[in-house]
Amino acid sequence: MLRRLLDRPCTLALLIGFQFAFMAYFSLGGFRNLTSIFGRETSPVFDYSRTHDIYTNLSRLLPREPPRSDPAQPLPYCPERSPYLIGPLTVSFSRVPTLEQIQAKNPAVSEGGRYQPSACEPRSRTAIIIPHRNRETHLGHLLYYLHPFLQRQQLQYGIYVVHQAGNSTFNRAKLLNVGVKEALKDEEWDCLFLHDVDLIPENDHNLYTCDPWNPKHVSVAMNKFGYSLPYPQYFGGVSALTPDQYMKINGFPNEYWGWGGEDDDIATRVRLAGMKIARPPISIGHYKMVKHKSDKGNEENPHRFDLLIRTQRMWTQDGMNSLTYTLLAKQLHPLYTNLTVDIGTDPRAGQGRKGLVPGHEGQRYQSSSSLFRQEMLRKLPRATMGWGAQGLYLPSALSQALAPRVSPGLTGVTHQPASRAAANGTQGDANGEKAGAPPALGASQRSPEAFGKSSSDPDPASAVAGVSASLAPAGEGAVSVRGENQSSLQGSH
Known about the structure:
Elements lengths: L1 H6 L1 H19 L2 H9 L60 H7 L8 E2 L9 E8 L3 H17 L3 E9 L7 H15 L4 E5 L3 E3 L14 E2 L3 E2 L15 E4 L1 H6 L13 H11 L13 E4 L14 H6 L1 H4 L10 E8 L4 E6 L13 E3 L5 E3 L3 H15 L11 H6 L16 H7 L2 E2 L5 E2 L24 H10 L11 E2 L3 H6 L2
Parallel strand pairs: 2-3, 2-4, 3-11, 7-9, 10-16
Antiparallel strand pairs: 1-3, 4-8, 5-9, 6-8, 10-11, 12-13, 14-15
């Protein structure tokens, strides 16, 4: 009987078609999907009781050969895995290095914090973007470890420190948007690393390159959380996106002033744009946090939950296409490029009050308590943003407190798998609206000058179209960088 089936032309055509589909699936990363379904990829094992000095044999990376006789002859590509990697690193904060000491240890780093291997053509060009204010000690520690860390990986890289001017409430996500916009003016970077200033990588096998398919959360094992992931949707600390991925999620939100919420908003944008979160193995993504007290001007954001509730309908209108700021100065320091920017002030300043917040099963927490943070960051983002296949769940007390702000149909929201959303080209919600992810952008569409004001149309599908439309060449209403030194700064690019 099997022989008869194989003799039929239609059966043979189906088998050939299945074979081609199978090959295409694997060529597009299907094996990675299979390993995530049927089992975990084999994770490398490292002994963190035996660590190495990050500067050990770093001199081997310095150019030793005389200049080439024919500069037009292309260099060979660097190996996919650098031979200079040493594994777990010794990270200590007992002494604060000066910038002069760091510069002396990194003679191959050029002005503006730039580096390029001299013996081979790098496989990735990575921009490191660090939001900063009043953290000079932390910045010194990070630069001391990060420069040799990146050189060992044989990357072409540049480090940008985005300094928020003034004393207004800190806005991490908006500073990262500014850094991305300014960095892309300098070069066509392949990868954007968004890096907190107080996190130091502890293993140089943690490659600072992007995942070609999905945004990557890199700081998966911090000592602050016992070297484990605090919750599945966590996207804080250090993350990496290609420019196309960054524009596809409309960048980071601009409305989160103060501590908390923006990383969960970003994780939601990734899902709404039809992508997933990629991560390195836990054994590689180790980070040590520089201890510090809470920052003045970076207090907990009392409005973060309200903002998270509206992410699903506002993500296409709040981000790179609504970014406004004033570039006050751009300075090329020996170890980094400093961007001093005025990003405005929190329009809600003075409206928030710390007090009792309704919690799960009728409990009431102080909004500044660790119990509230745990419920806020672990449970509520997962529920209110539709993570998982189950319907939306809100604790009863919290639902009552938020009733005026939550639409009646919101409790019926269910998550549509990304694969189905991609196949349909749309993503449904409880109100019958359709939301599609913005299309992937080519290099010609990435221009940072191409972002204008977003559409005010509340319909998600129209808003997505508005994001795509705003990526045309800048015209009326485009984001402008203001300041007396604008012309001189543009001339130096």
